[in-house]
Amino acid sequence: MAVETPVIVINYKAYPESIGPAALELSKLADALAREKRASVVVCPPVSDLFCVQAEVGIPVWGQAADAVEPGGRTGHVTCEMLVNAGAEGLLVNHSERRLQLADMEWLVARARRLKLDTCVCTNNVAVSRAAAALGPDFVAVEPPELIGGDVSVTTADPEVVRRSVEEVRRVDPKVRVLCGAGVKNGKDVSKAIELGAQGVLLASGVVKAKDKRATLLDLIAGLK
Ligand code: G3P
Question: Is residue 1, in this structure, part of any structural domain at all?
């Protein structure tokens, strides 16, 4: 399913608040609100929950990572083929908490494309955003690692990294859409990201750790307008 933009991509990471039954509950809430508000939302549950989440929602479900390996004798690995069979429609690549070598990023983007999985390559600055765009992913998500999990949104702390990543990615491959993330918490951060040229946000703790997930998601979705 082609992801509509602007989009909110929610990375569940490995937080206790977003694994197992909690992952399913959050995904159903995101799905219901995305439908109610006709908004584009993607969820990235842990791989252990991916199959059961995608069976219960209509919004795209992505993997948080994959290994650049062929199927076969690969104990403990997660292949792109496994994500496809679990019902995923895309995956994050090179998240700063799962950094890859450039050759692995290229391998994964090419294999995902062949398997019709969307790819969102995560980057930490403008130069890496520019390089990632050359791999031809569907999305580049720029996230300064030092801001991840913090209380200040990248759109406030470092708007230039967003604006310049959008500019550089567009120069390399205008088909690649840019998201930004790190510290994104509310609708204001989302609309600022869009003002800076991004086509959405990638976030985690702002939703997963929210006291009122419904109110938080509604506020974030309002920022897409
Ligand atoms: O993948 C998104 C994530 O790295 C951002 O984390 O908690 O700052 O929204 P957070």
Answer: no
Give the mutation target among 143, 201, 213 for probing the ligand 1 site: most ligand atoms within 8 A of CB: 143
pLDDT at 1: 57
Q: How far is CA 34 from CA 8, 67, 88, 222, in A?
A: 10, 30, 18, 11
Q: Evaluate if residue 21 carries a pLDDT over 80.
A: yes
Answer yes or no: is 132 within a domain.
Answer: yes
Structure tokens at 79: 């292949």
CA distances to 60, 129, 142, 179 from 82, in Å: 16, 27, 26, 25
Q: Which residues are catalytic?
A: 95, 143
DSSP classification of residue 4: P
Nearest CA to 18 out of 180, 207, 147, 190 is that of 207
pLDDT digits (tens, 9 = 90+) for 57-70: 999 999 999 999 99
Domain that holds residue 124: 7-222
Residue 23 CB contacts under 8 Å (≥ 6 apart), including other chains: 12, 45, 46, 49, 53
The structure's pTM equals 0.98
35 CA to centre of ligand 1 in angstroms:
24
Q: Which of 182, 195, 113 is nearest to 143 (CA)?
A: 182
40 beta partners? 7
Task: Give CA separation, 109 vs 85, 90, 100, 140, 148, in Å.
Answer: 17, 10, 12, 12, 24
Residue 92 counted as domain residue? yes
